[in-house]
Design brief:
The protein has 307 residues and is mainly α. It contains 12 helices and 4 strands; from the N terminus they run ααααβαβαααααβαβα.
Length: 307
Amino acid sequence: MISSVLFLILGFVLLIYGAHILVDGATALARKFDIPEIVIGLTVVACGTSAPEAAVSISSVISGNSAVGIGNILGSNIVNIFVILGLSALIANLHVKKNTILYEIPFLGFVSLLLLFMGWQYSMISRTGALVLLGLFLLFFLYLYKVSKKHKTENPEIENMSFIKMVCFIILGIVALIIGAKITVNSATDIAHFLNVSERIIGLTIVAFGTSLPELVTCVIAAFKHRPGIVIGNVVGSNLFNVLFVLGLTGLIKPVPFEHAFLMDAALGIIAAVLLWVLVFKDKKFNRIDGVVFLIIYLAYTIWLIK
């Protein structure tokens, strides 16, 4: 058991480190070839925080542990909204942009509803369903491109690298993600068997929380730096990436079974989006009381899971 926990931690470290250096290397390489900053931000950097979820989900489905994979996506989205927004709001009131309220949060609700429908109606994310998700991801990408053209966004400073260093960063990042995903899935499965709990619960809790660490760190730091306005947009965007890109790509590689038990978790994802929209619609702000409520909801959800 102890060795499995240590390997799980190692897997998370490799996933986060791999995503970090892959983004740095790919961003530096893109800049070397004069690819516009906006394209870099909307592709490499945006997908970077979803890389751990993608690696774990694809690896788990291929290895036959699909419950860990889809549980990871659903659980990560629940953690992102209830825990990350909750903790960030305790640090500072979160101001919400008009576009996020009018378009992004409602779109997240629609996507969450679509995912629930696929699971309820077909009990799987088929290749056809995956293509639908990827098509919606393309529309979301075009929307982000249009918004970003109107509003300048800050991009992380990347050090000047030699071409060899860029390539090494990219290769090492991919290798770390692959190895980290395999270690994470295997150790999470071992822990589930040892504790005599389902892979679904492990995927929804431990694995989901671990793969959400990049988003957690990013949002908490943004709140501490008095840039809370970007937090909700980042969380909503990450959740959309997880469902549309990660599940879409995973389902395209291999159809993903959707256990009946996951319907409740998918429904909570819809409730989270609706509740978030209701709370921020009037004042365009997510305050500390809202954050406490979200943390309590997640605590109650976790207790319900492990009962």
